[in-house]
Specification:
alpha/beta; D-Maltodextrin-Binding Protein, domain 2; 2 domains; six-stranded mixed sheet
């Protein structure tokens, strides 16, 4: 085929004029909202605000966080699934909203795979097993003994039915053969208040929320729900030391509605991966026990698939269903 100067210029002009290229070049030219489907003050909110701040700095655009809590995160995420697929409404998603909820809610207001484009896995966050300081146990072994001695007497709190902290508790019950009453709350803040007050006996919660109370001696941490001990807290045992293979880690990522223009998807994903390599961001997150990830879109999609299968098995074994 003979290439002429006119043909080359025409091809270049069509490339410049393509909607995808125009969308990427001009994005963002107005307000971008990142929906956090949980209450303010929690880990998802913290990470959403870090991402919004750094995306604004890196792109020169305006990014804000909107908290829209309810139904274990389903309310806010469903709103984004219905939003225009133009890159101006995004959502923070978690192990709850994009791996656990599809298996525990009988009716889901969105399809966690078909309705979204995964942008990047932002971070993984360890959960801690904690008890009220008045409970007469100081080790995981002592806790299991106490729970088995008086089945059905003690309670564990979570930040909502179907959340990662709820399912961590269910996984603990399955693996230890214990009978503990689940008490769901609407936020981690409420869980912390009632654990401090002794209204509930134990909980699993994100290290970002719990650690200040542990350090102050107001809550007793027994173990981390990770396969290995944390560099952040090397003296704290891993639950896997008592229950082989135990792992119940929270994770958080960024999603766009399905059919968002590929150029915008790629722009956001690339920027998120880059901001999570910024030394000040890495230091800030690691100080509160968070491990920054910054995965590619393909890696994130694979992670979601694996986690969905894993938590579906746990939900089935535990008989967890929410109408």
């Amino acid at each position: 085929m003979r290439l002429t100067r006119r043909g080359i210029l025409a091809g270049a002009a069509s490339l410049v004029a393509s909607p995808a290229v125009r969308a990427q070049a001009g994005y963002p030219d107005r307000l971008v909202t990142i929906v956090v489907p949980f209450a303010a003050g929690g880990t998802t909110d913290l990470l959403g605000r870090v991402v919004a701040e750094r995306l604004a700095s890196r792109t020169g655009g305006t990014f804000i966080v909107e908290n829209k809590a309810g139904a274990g995160g389903n309310l806010g995420v469903a709103a984004v699934a219905r939003a225009p697929a133009d890159g101006y409404t995004l959502t923070m998603g978690t192990v709850s909203t994009h791996a656990i909820n599809p298996s525990v809610y009988r009716k889901m207001p969105y399809d966690h795979v078909k309705d979204f484009t995964p942008l990047s896995l932002i971070a993984s966050v360890p959960n801690l097993l904690m008890v009220n300081v008045g409970l007469p146990v100081r080790t995981v072994a002592e806790l299991i003994t106490l729970l088995k001695r008086e089945p059905g007497k003690y309670s564990f709190a979570s930040s909502g039915a179907g959340t990662s902290t709820h399912m961590a508790g269910e996984l603990f019950k399955l693996n230890t053969g214990t009978d503990i009453i689940h008490v769901p709350y609407r936020s981690s803040g409420q869980v912390t208040q009632d654990l401090l007050a002794g209204q509930v006996h134990m909980t699993f919660d994100n290290i970002t929320v719990a650690w200040p109370h542990v350090e102050a001696g107001r809550i007793r941490a027994l173990a981390t729900a990770t396969p290995e001990r944390l560099p952040f807290a090397p003296d704290l045992p891993a639950l896997s030391e008592f229950i082989p293979g135990f792992a119940a880690t929270s994770w958080h990522g960024l999603f766009a509605p399905a059919a968002t223009p590929p150029a915008i998807v790629e722009r956001i994903s690339t920027e998120v991966q880059a901001l999570l390599r910024e030394p000040d961001v890495v230091e800030k997150l690691k100080k509160v026990g968070v491990t920054p990830v910054g995965s590619t879109r393909t890696e994130f999609a694979s992670h979601i698939a694996a986690e969905t299968a894993r938590w579906k098995e746990v939900a089935t074994r535990a008989g967890v269903h929410i109408d």
